[in-house]
Prior knowledge:
Blueprint: H1 20-34, H2 44-73, E1 77-81, H3 91-98, H4 101-110, H5 115-119, H6 131-145, E2 150-155, E3 163-167, E4 170-174, E5 187-198, E6 201-205, E7 213-217, E8 220-232, E9 239-249, H7 255-259, H8 268-274, H9 287-314, H10 322-325, E10 326-331, H11 338-349, H12 354-364, E11 365-368, E12 379-381, H13 382-388, H14 390-411, H15 415-421, E13 424-425, E14 431-433, H16 434-440, E15 444-447, H17 450-458, H18 462-467, E16 472-474, H19 481-487, H20 490-500, H21 521-546, E17 555-560, H22 569-585, E18 594-599, H23 607-624, E19 633-637, H24 643-652, E20 655-658, H25 670-676, E21 680-683, H26 689-696, E22 702-703, H27 708-717, H28 721-726, H29 729-740, H30 752-760, H31 766-785, H32 787-799, H33 806-818
Parallel strand pairs: 1-2, 1-10, 2-9, 10-11, 11-15, 15-16, 17-18, 17-20, 18-19, 20-21, 21-22
Antiparallel strand pairs: 3-4, 5-8, 6-7, 8-9, 12-14, 13-14
Helix pairs in contact: 1-2, 1-4, 2-3, 3-19, 6-33, 9-11, 11-12, 11-14, 13-14, 20-21, 21-24, 21-32, 22-23, 22-29, 29-30
Amino acid sequence: MIKSLNKADLPLPQPRVSDPEVLAAEIIEHLTYGIGKDATVATPHDWLTATILVVRDHIIDRWMESTRAVYANNAKRVYYLSLEFLIGRLMRDAMSNLGLMDEIREALASIGVELDVIAGLEPDAALGNGGLGRLAACFMESMATVHIPAYGYGIRYVHGLFRQQMADGWQVELPETWLAHGNPWEFERRESSYEIGFGGAVETVAENGEEAHFIWKPGERVIATAYDTPIVGWRGGHVNTLRLWSAQPIDPILLEAFNAGDHIGALRESNKAEALTRVLYPADATAAGQELRLRQEYFFCSASLQDILRRHLQQGNELSALPDKVAIQLNDTHPAVSVVELMRLLCDVHDLDLDTAWDLTSRTFSYTNHTLLPEALESWPVPLFERLLPRHMQLVYVINAKILRDARKNRNFSDHEISHISLIDESGDRRVRMGNLAFIGSHSINGVSALHTALMKETVFADLHKLYPERINNKTNGITPRRWLMQCNPRLTSLIRDTVGPDFLDDAEKLKALDAYADDAEFRKQFAAVKRTNKEQLANLVASRMGIRLDPSAMFDIQIKRIHEYKRQLLNIVETVALFDQIRTHPERDWVPRVKLFAGKAAPSYHNAKLIIKLANDVARVINNDPAVRNLLKVVFIPNYNVSLAEVMVPAADLSEQISTAGMEASGTGNMKFALNGALTIGTLDGANVEMRDHVGEENIVIFGMTADEVGKLRAEGHNPRAVIESSRELSQALAAIASGVFSPDDPGRFSELVDGLYQHDWFMVAADFNAYAKAQRDVDALWADEASWYSKTIRNTARMGWFSSDRTIQQYNTDIWRA
Length: 820
């Protein structure tokens, strides 16, 4: 029996100090007693773990202080629900935010360990894919920095998306093994475990004339168990929690079956449960893949909402106070099923009536939309949804009836408008629209750039905006300057601090002071030297991983992002082929030496995206081995893009490729990271590029191509890509070379499908924008030739990007939406 103690009687932990000698002793103590290793035989991985545990100890003190303060004040919390949290490596980030970087480095050096060596061994947490997940990670750090009490909720993926390798230029997907040796940052919370149900049936109970009560009896159940990771803000002032859910079966082994010799069948339930948290975004081309993805989304949403309600009631709050104490942000449509899950919990578990439950639900949720692509606004076949979540399907119909009756009776909506706002899409096979559910169930719906928000009102949510004209608002994305300047580019950070002082470390908008030095010749020289060193670091990485030698004096032209046709890596590659032709045809010209660098992953079932990766690698093989190019052009596709690779590539970029089809990129955050680190942007007026142009000045960014309105108009009027291609000699020759097998002699027809798509429909306007893009690239060449002007422009980019801090974004969310 455990004796109950009065908290006042408990001894208080002693404050930790940052003296290097003490830190060294703490590292040795963790190595000895936490890992069970003697220093004389410890491996670099042992030293890494011991160091992380020491840093973690320093975080825990602040974590507990932060939690106590929130409980004492019964403060409102923000709950950020996201299927992705691309947090990357945590050790450097945590040390920097705690102000321990130099002290830990000195402590390790005193015991013969090099910080940079062991830091490079920390695995990237495989919890995300691209911008959506990295944004969630930046937001978590910024919420801690600006002292907003918050929990992030997601899934503890064992393998994440996948580890990308290349086999003869083709993407190969392998399991990511980041958890193979444990995760020293996390804490298992067995007490925070919840049952999650699937399938089964709904029973109606009505007694003594009372209103019917519904009881869902799931056909199968699993256990969700929480794992907590502390997220520390800048200067360690506040620490929030990232809570990830792992799935376990209720019965890990069917012993009777095992003893009968059915060893595989005996583990069936265990395997089924564990599949929920194995992989991020299981391929949904099959019915089984769709079901697993819906199961994943409901699993983490149900566990999170049960946890939120338990905490809310445990603090002595009434359910009626839920919107006053809880703000739940849905990061895209993946957590949208939370809307009906909260309704189920309030109605079926806590006995609230439907109208009261709906009022509380819609005042508690808010929804961030990240895409204008209708196909990316998730929807689920009604039979699948009803079979897997029968009670939720009932509630979807109830909510839908309420909304549609109101729209018809009070707003005079037409049949056409009703069909667009309905939660059920009946244009083909009936499907549940998760984007509409998230919109209807939230009091605030935000876009992530000014252009994106305006287009939301005109396109995907036009009729819902008419029904609820006050709900849509804009919150332009941002990035944390701690990770994307101070950590990834310490040389530039030091130069800025030495030049304008340290104020920008606490307020990124103070970077504006750097503007005064953009035309200072000595500062430009120092700025260029930092860029050169960063490029040398990237060149060394490419040489070690791929055996390709790069010249750091060449322009490093970089495009890193998820591989997708609308992001137009294909446009970049086709222009590279055209440039290759021009260099060989006109050797007398003064060509600017360029290195074209690509990185990014394609979804396993996305055929064209994987074909684009193969094309990039095939083009690289030919160009890099052609002596006529004279090293004026090189092409490199670096495999397995992740946060750690980005932290090397972003500071090394001279030119940032942000060339998506106008009107299709919601915001982008890579564009912000590059510009903050002194790269010139070449891009369309898409997403946050529009606002970047306004902040850095149109003379300090290279904009080309059609606007979103022009793209829409051309699509509506009819685009004739064949005529466009045939009128452009450079484009037609480049496409002919690709289609005829110049870059794929082993399979001449390999890329004919990609090229035919440009001739036939060119939906993403690759052909339509090619001439403007090629001209813009030659304008970039001219800018590069004037070194003083180039660095003046890139310095002004760094100086004027402070507004794009995620601290500003989060403060706007809090002021306008959460009010925490």
